[in-house]
Structure formats: C-alpha cells, structure tokens
Amino acid sequence: DIQMTQSPSSLSASVGDRVTITCRASHGISSWLAWYQQKPGKAPKSLIYAASSLQSGVPSRFSGSGSGTDFTLTISSLQPEDFATYYCQQYNSYPLTFGGGTKVEIK
Amino acid sequence: QVQLQESGPGLVTPSGTLSLTCAVSGDSLSSSNWCSWVRQSPGKGLEWIGKVYHSGSTNYNPSLKSRVTISVDKSKNQFSLKLTSVTAADTAVYYCAIYSTVTGFDPWGQGTLVTVSS
Q: Are A39 and A84 in contact (CB under 8 A)?
C-alpha cells in the first residue's frame, strides 16, 4: 500500500495568512493526487485533483502543486470559511489511500 | 448536479452484517464513473472500502476484502455496501461517493453513522 503522510497534523493561522500543507507519498504516484476539505459533521469536499487542477466552484485562493512523492496545498489568503481539516489522497494504485489530515485552526 | 444519499440501519449487532444503500440522483449510474464507499471512524481519518462500476466490476481494499460486497442496481440508480462479521472497529461514518480515475472522489453523500454494539 502507498502510505500518505501529511504535515503538519495541525496548524494555527489567522485570517489573511498564507497556509501551506504538505503531503508525501511512500512511493511515486505521478500526479494522481487529490485534496479534500472537511468541516465538522460534514462530508469531505473535493478541492483539487491531478495534483494541481481546481475543482469547479473552488475559490482560486486554493492551489496545489507537486508530482512524484511530494505535494503541497496552498491557501493564499486564509478566509474564515477555510478553517477545516484537509486530506490528501492518492489514486495512482490500489488500495486508494488518504493522508492522516491537517487541521487548520484559528489563531 | 449529481447528489448522493446514504441509507440503512444506524445500529448493527456484533458479528452481524452492515448493509447500506446509496441513492444517486441527477445522473445515471450507466455513466463512465465508479461508485465507491469510504468510511471514517470517530475522530479518525478516511479509509477507502471499495468501488463498483456500472458493469458490476469491483475493486476492494484488501484489508476488508474478505468481508465486503459492493453491488449496483442500475434499475433503481443506486448501489449498496454489505460488510459481514462486524465488530466495534467497524463503527464509523460511512460515505458513498462517485469516483473518477481522473478527478478522484466527487461528489460525496452526506454520510451515515453506523454503530456496532449489542
């Protein structure tokens, strides 16, 4: 199985901050990586697919980059509605696996 | 706009079978994407369970493969999950989602909590 490791596991930030979350795959996954946002009591929501492609309707302050084993999710200017937990997920090979999540909290 | 809705018992007894259904609206299950199940144990991360194509072809997580069956009913535009021999470790919120080999999981159902307890 491909292990997905996210860092940090949590972070505190202020509205307007630039936030970067990293995701590392235990084996190369090309660009087959997605990012999801999950708010308490809600289902995950797809933000980015293929490492850097923005899902329809997702604000442009979200961006993704990387390929192979190292990936990043960047929020250019954190908004109040962005406080949530973020997960990366690889879909290069089975079983499909998720990172452990990064909780973004208000500073 | 595709929408998914999970349904099924919220309480299952240990050693029993967990059965859930996902109703799909806004699109036909005969399109080119897969129907999938993902679960999230309380306070934990996300675990992929498996997926089914409209043809009936399936892929399962090896960690659950011996206990899981995912099937599709095109006439009702829904798909189902069965997990046998459940234990407390199977207590989780179960999500159905549409899976694309290009874009990942999107959209998701709202999720349903299943508790395994006597």
A: yes
The CA distance from B96 to the nearest CA of chain A, in Å, is 10
User: Which one of A34, A43, A95 has the shortest CB-CB distance to B104?
Assistant: A34
pLDDT of B30 reads 67
Return the residue in A73, A96, A97 with the most chain B beta carbons within 10 A, the one to mutate for interface testing: A96
Distance of alpha carbon B118 from the chain centroid: 23
E strand spans, chain B: 3-7, 11-12, 18-25, 34-40, 46-52, 58-60, 68-73, 78-83, 92-100, 104-108, 112-116
Cα R_g (chain B), whole angstroms: 13
pLDDT tens by residue, B46-59: 999 999 998 889 99
Q: Which residue has the tokens 């996300």?
A: B46
3-state secondary structure at position A10: strand
